[in-house]
Amino acid sequence: MRFMMYILLFFVGCIAQPGTVTGQTREFSETVDFEPGGSLRINTQRGTVKLTTWDQSQVEVLARIEAPDGVSRSYAEEAVESAHIEVYGSNRSLTIRSVYDDVPYYDDDGDGWGHSRRIPYIYYEIHAPRQLNLDLEVERVNSTLEGIEGRIHIESERGNIDGRDWQGDIVMRLERGEVRLANITGAIDLDLERINVEIDRWQIDGDSRVTAERGEVILELPEGQGFDLRADVGSRSDFNSVFQITARNFRRNKIEGTINGGGPRLYLQGERTEFRLRQWR
Hints:
Layout: H1 2-16, E1 25-33, E2 38-54, E3 58-66, H2 73-82, E4 84-89, E5 93-99, E6 121-129, E7 132-149, E8 152-157, E9 161-167, E10 170-185, E11 188-203, E12 208-222, E13 227-233, E14 238-241, E15 246-250, E16 254-259, E17 265-280
Parallel strand pairs: 2-5, 2-6, 2-7, 7-8, 7-9, 8-10, 9-10, 10-11, 11-12, 12-17, 13-17, 14-17
Antiparallel strand pairs: 1-3, 3-6, 4-5, 13-16, 15-16
């Protein structure tokens, strides 16, 4: 009996030892006035951003700050408490920013010096007017953006982007990840590295460009969409199109021509990239 009690106490003691903590969280909520057509900037690392639109002249910011993985309980709690969120600007130009300056470093090799730092995860849910100009700067963040009318500028590293129902010019500088867009109207300017992009139901209304290195780019356009095409692809890239091209220059690595009588220019340039043009009816 005493032997069994020792085993039980040992087992409970093992469970109670400090270890990886995932339960520490802190909530954030703020609502500010924001005029439709204004500029909204979001800057964050590690976590998610979900932006949806509504019919109110306000921006609502909800966020959950969650402890990083693989650290002690005390460090996890300190990291969560040290990170904070800033919402500042005016009703025409607003910034939402994650601030990690006070998140401490910790000694990871036993020499008494703090060499490493684990910033917490921050999960955003944001509501904003449909008409806005968006600047999104993120790293290691998965973003979902829906129902935007206005200019969209995105810089992302090591994150996925899921977008739907956008109207306006789109500029993206992306490295590593996946992008899936649908119901897009506007011109695009994309610089891509090690990333796969699929745009479904895209209507071009201005000159557009896609430059890519190592990835796959799938563009689905209306069956009757007219545009002027130029594709420069390296020897280790590929280009496929279901559109009939009236060619001015048609070589293995360089294609120039018009589709459906011509229109806005679409320039594709890639290394180790597969480009595919599809139709939708």
